């Protein structure tokens, strides 16, 4: 049994506008699987596929304004590309953000609804990831979180230290998942969470039971009777297990 990371889920006040921002930012297309949802994925992409972690933007009545524990880092190929991408993102509605980062080579920004993300300087490790270099999860204990997530998913653990851990699809393609040590990470509900999916033929309930044995807990987010299962990881980050597909 195994799970794969298939998408990042954004809660939004205006799913259509925020979805279009991220589509334009990443150079991807948009579609919709139902009311209140905008799906953002590469053109001519057959979902799910490890070459990309897609973005799902879902409308909620009152998205919280909080310090987020999950954000995206965007990849660039050169200093010129980084400058051009930052300028294009500003034209699309993003704005620079000061979170006390000081003088760093990456650029911290906020999307039109305030979700933080970074535009990285060119780094060799991210040259083959696609537009999303890494999905970053702020945490207190990267080693413990790496142990959970590397057993929860079929992703490969590439690096782990006291300060960070880095995983990637076992296929060696697509973005990374990075667990970053952060003092006092926020404990409020995330506006951004991860969606995992079993492989075809695997059983959703069995996967959820396996996650419980690894330290995950059930989460009641007011989701009601839905086809996915809402859980939290050992540090309280929300995530969902979708039906196999």
TrEMBL record:
Residues 7-120, 135-242 form the Glyoxalase-like domain. The keyword ATP-binding does not apply. Pfam families: Glyoxalase_6. Keywords: Lyase. Transmembrane segments: none annotated. InterPro entries: Glyas_Bleomycin-R_OHBP_Dase, Glyoxalase_6. It comes from the Bacteria. One of its GO terms (molecular function) is lyase activity. PANTHER family: CONSERVED PROTEIN, HYPOTHETICAL FUSION PROTEIN. This is Enzyme related to lactoylglutathione lyase. It comes from Paenarthrobacter histidinolovorans.
């Amino acid at each position: 049994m195994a799970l794969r990371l298939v998408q990042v889920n954004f809660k939004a006040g205006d799913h259509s506008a925020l979805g279009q921002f991220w589509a334009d930012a990443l150079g991807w297309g948009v579609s919709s699987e139902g009311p209140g949802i905008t799906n953002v994925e590469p053109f001519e992409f057959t979902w799910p596929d490890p070459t990309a972690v897609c973005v799902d933007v879902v409308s909620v009545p009152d998205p919280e304004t909080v310090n987020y524990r999950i954000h995206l880092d965007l990849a660039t190929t050169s200093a010129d590309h980084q400058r051009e991408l930052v300028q294009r993102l500003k034209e699309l509605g993003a704005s620079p953000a000061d979170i006390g980062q000081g003088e760093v080579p990456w650029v911290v920004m906020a999307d039109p609804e305030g979700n933080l993300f970074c535009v990285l300087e060119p780094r060799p490790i991210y040259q083959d990831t696609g537009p999303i270099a890494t999905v970053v999860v702020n945490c207190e204990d990267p080693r413990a979180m790496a142990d959970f997530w590397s057993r929860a998913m079929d992703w490969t653990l590439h690096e782990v230290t006291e300060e960070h851990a880095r995983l990637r699809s076992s296929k060696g393609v697509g973005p990374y998942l990075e667990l970053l040590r952060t003092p006092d990470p926020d404990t409020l509900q995330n506006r951004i969470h991860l969606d995992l999916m079993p492989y075809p033929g695997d059983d959703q309930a069995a996967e959820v039971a396996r996650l419980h044995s690894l330290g995950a807990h059930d989460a009641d987010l007011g989701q009601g009777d839905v086809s996915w299962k809402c859980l939290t990881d050992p540090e309280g980050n929300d995530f969902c297990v979708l039906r196999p597909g």
